[in-house]
Amino acid sequence: MCFLFYLLVRGLRVGADCIVEFCVDRFMEKAESGSVNGSANVLSLDAVRDTLIRLEDTIVFSLIERAKYPINSAMYNESAGLVAGHHGSFIKFFVKRTEALHAQAGRYGSEEENAFFPGSLSCSLVSSRPSTNVLHPVAKIVNLNKDIWDMYINQLLPLITAGGDDGNYALAAAADLACLQAISRRIHYGKFVAEVKFLDDSPEYTRLIRARVCITS
Ligand SMILES: *[C@@H]1O[C@H](CO)[C@@H](O)[C@H](O)[C@H]1NC(C)=O
Ligand SMILES: *[C@@H]1O[C@H](CO)[C@@H](O)[C@H](O)[C@H]1NC(C)=O
């Protein structure tokens, strides 16, 4: 529900009533199907499907937020020197520093989270409860964020934004990070899809993995 709150506060007034209705419906559906009730059925195919739909909605809304600002190319220029004492682009400065804080608060302890700059993160400073992991440990090393970053900045961003520069770098960078994280979550959720399918027919998938058969659907 805080996503709804965010939309309203940011002034996306078009059809606010429809959005309320849509969100409440979605929320009720989830409550009834039990997928808001802890991790009991995290790995049912239905729960995974619901999550995929929700993640896609989040991508669309975060792209709409970013499209409010022009492309602001200087933010992505490695040699524009926008941040005193920092080499590299404004966007990298923004994302690295944000991820550093989130890492210290324990964000990347979650199996659903993948950092864009995992090399420069410190450990969590927060003692956390032992989590129940559902993925195979090797899933941790699957991180496609470098490709997602390049695709988003070089291909997607020019398509969704107007040309020009309004100087709103911090706001545009925050919107970029929301888009990047939404896309990353959706793509990496494929790990959970793979796990569900594997658990559904372990002997057959084990055979295919041993035979190194590549499954693309
Ligand atoms: C939520 O999960 C708990 C523990 O697994 C269970 O006792 C409870 O009945 C569940 N609630 C709903 C609404 O399904
Ligand atoms: C990046 O910024 C530098 C320094 O301001 C400038 O010379 C260069 O043309 C910019 N590059 C692009 C691709 O805009």
From TrEMBL:
Taxonomic lineage: Eukaryota, Viridiplantae, Streptophyta, Embryophyta, Tracheophyta
Any one GO cellular component localisation term in the record: cytoplasm
Residues in the signal sequence: 1-16
Name this polypeptide is given: chorismate mutase
Keywords, alphabetical: Cytoplasm, Isomerase, Signal
InterPro entries according to UniProt: Chorismate_II_sf, Chorismate_mutase_AroQ_euk, CM_AroQ_sf_eucaryotic
GO molecular function, one term: chorismate mutase activity
GO biological process: aromatic amino acid family biosynthetic process; chorismate metabolic process
